Amino acid sequence: MADKPADFFLGALDLFGILVPGAVGAAAVLVVDPKAVEPVIGLLPTSGAERTIALVVTAYLLGYPYRLPTRAIRIASPRRGSSEGMSASATTLVQ
Q1: CA 70 to chain centre
Q2: What is the pLDDT of residues 40-73, one digit of tens each?
Q3: Residue 92 pLDDT > 80
Q4: Which of 17, 24, 27, 34 could lock 13 by a disulfide, CB 3.0 to 4.6 Å apart?
């Protein structure tokens, strides 16, 4: 089975919902307490491309747990607006 380019597509949810909060969280840890992560920083590669990959992986690992509470809040919040004019399948999704 051949890989398709769409298999590696980075969507808006991945970028703004996971990677950006994870990168902000990683930066906040570095600013607030740099000595706590000093041993880990020494393990990072020295090349620019390898550091970028390490940042993206770290941002994803830190950002994914940030997304879970927002998803729970969105699921628990009452729906706004009415479902008039929606198809039956769309109405089922809203309710």
Answers
A1: 11
A2: 877 877 778 888 888 888 888 888 888 777 777 7
A3: no
A4: 17
List of residues 6+ apart from 21 with CB closer than 8 A: 62, 63, 66, 67
Distance between CA 45 and CA 51 in Å, rounded?
Answer: 6
Say how far apart CA 72 and CA 69 lie, in whole Å. Answer: 5
**What is the distance between the alpha carbons of residues 34 and 28, in angstroms, rounded to a whole number?**
9
Give the C-alpha separation, 75 to 93, whole Å. Answer: 11
Counting Cα atoms < 13 Å in the Cβ hemisphere of 56 gives 9
- According to DSSP H, which parts of 3-87 are helical? 12, 20-32, 38-43, 48-76
Q: Report the 10 Å Cβ neighbour count for 70.
A: 11
> What's at 95, amino acid-wise?
Q
Helix (H) or strand (E) run with residue 89 in it: helix 88-94
